[in-house]
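Large ribosomal subunit protein uL23m
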Amino acid sequence: MALASFKVGAKELFIPDVSIALLRTPGLPANNAKFHVPLWFSKLDLRDYLFHVYGVEILSVRSYVKQSRVQSGRPGLTRPAFKRWHRPRSTKFMTVELARPFVWPEEPDDGYLEWGLKENNDVEKENTKWQELEMGQNRDQLVNEERRERMREQAKALLEGKAKWKAPEGRTGKDFRRGQ
């Protein structure tokens, strides 16, 4: 490995326990790269990490911390808790200027989109079926199409005079017919 053109840090790191993500940013020039890093990571840490692990020289580093929006409730609660606010953990991004440009490889064709498509569609249909069966409070809003069609036919027969209306028996234990 070549000698660094900058002063190398003295922190020895044999097995890195951090995850650094290189983000695809089509709006940046080829000699810039954007990384998602842990909050405690410094510019010098990223510069030394990229030099020692990948042999990449960096000319400059810009970093910024993106705050998350304030949310109602507390983290970890399933129900919303009103009048309680918290701010989720912030995220840190670093943009580096590379000594040599890096060009992303072309994205693969759309062949990977069909991968597992049938299985995903089957799972989605099964999930929607279960959600319709077990909707809980909104269960009464489900429409039974077969029952609706039977009721439509009965109403049509009553209006045309083909059938005569009979009160349902045995449900309440009382007979509502007059004279009895």
